[in-house]
Design brief:
By secondary structure, the protein is of the alpha/beta class. It is built from 16 helices and 10 strands.
Length: about 325
């Protein structure tokens, strides 16, 4: 299936499922979707701290991409998930009722376009005629397309394949593709036989900013504000530890070992990946600059800009007048009080 068909299938699926009755939490039970990103808060999944602090019976399920998580949210199987801003914009534009309540990271060096040694790519001017890949409807996919457009190229000039990250790694190592925009653990794997050409932060500087966030269905958020508050407080706890205690997060630490056990890879890889994150403090996140500004919040603006780009690319059919309804600082504000 080609790039456009893949995205069309996903978006249509989200649209048709968005009206399905949601399987919201009952009796303090909730299903939470997460990905393979190395985050300080992922340790709380591994050691049970999220469940202990919130008092909920949490079924954590691992997904390969935010697009997969949104499909599960739309079907009612998942109530809370960790996603990127591009699939978020696509899902919101199709009417899925969701809210971002915590920003995990913003455009940084934890996501990047890696080009294969021997591919003949030394600079951005060498991308024409090459084969590149990214996970379908991911923030990396969005930034790869935005990067190509910023160079005055189209998908006719650069072949873009939308495939899951495990397949990207295999194709890269076989020499089937010349480069890929990825996040860890794929990022670390690709760098073994390639080099970083541009990072997510570089592409953001060109006008295509992204973020990753924890989201909840609007109904779940309305019915379970204390859960979101406690969930946010746990993330705050681990982010504060990471910011203040470097030794607790090095390659020999129990935290790095927990990440490796939960996500795969090695403690060394996760310790290195954590250093690439661009994290915002809870106070900055809750400010009007990011989650607290309604229609004018930074997160809402990024969602709208992303949706506009996706519409221009023919990936979504509509851009909403505003995306302020899809972000909230309530959980962060409550957790800080």
């Amino acid at each position: 299936m080609n790039l456009k068909s893949l995205i069309t299938a996903l978006v249509v699926g989200l649209g048709s499922l968005s009206m399905a009755p949601a399987a919201e939490a009952a009796d303090n039970k909730v299903v939470v979707g997460y990905q393979t990103d190395a985050l300080p808060s992922s340790v709380a999944i591994a050691n049970g701290d999220f469940a202990k602090t919130t008092g909920y019976d949490i079924d954590f399920r691992k997904f390969n991409s935010g697009a997969e998580i949104f499909a599960a949210i739309a079907s009612g199987d998942v109530q809370v998930g960790y996603v990127g801003s591009s699939p978020f914009a696509a899902a919101a534009s199709r009417g899925l009722e969701i809210k971002a309540f915590y920003l995990s990271s913003i455009s940084g060096i934890d996501e990047a376009l890696v080009v294969r040694n021997g591919s003949g790519i030394e600079s951005l001017s060498d991308l024409k005629g090459k084969k590149l890949a990214a996970a379908p409807v991911s923030t990396d996919h969005y930034q790869l397309l935005a990067l190509i457009k910023s160079l005055g190229l189209t998908e006719k000039d650069v072949q873009v394949f939308a495939i899951p990250q495990p397949e990207i790694v295999a194709g890269f190592n076989r020499g089937d593709i010349d480069g890929a925009f990825v996040w860890d653990p794929a990022l670390t794997e690709l760098k073994k036989n390639g080099k970083v050409l541009v990072t997510s932060r570089d592409v953001a500087d060109k006008g295509a900013a992204t973020f990753s966030a924890w989201v909840a269905t609007s109904q779940f958020a309305a019915d379970n504000p204390d859960f979101l508050k406690s969930f946010a407080s746990v993330i705050n706890k681990y982010y504060a530890s990471y910011a203040s205690d470097e030794g607790a997060w090095n390659a020999d630490s129990e935290n790095a070992k927990s990440l490796a056990k939960l996500l795969g890879g090695t403690p060394e890889q996760h310790a290195a990946a954590l250093k690439n994150l661009s994290l915002l403090t809870p106070e900055v996140q809750a400010s009007e600059a990011w989650l607290g500004g309604g229609d004018q919040s930074g997160a809402a603006k990024i969602l709208k800009e992303t949706a506009a780009f996706l519409k221009d690319q023919g990936k979504v059919s509509e851009v909403l007048p505003s995306y302020g309804a899809f972000v909230t600082a309530d959980a962060l504000t409550s957790a800080s009080n």
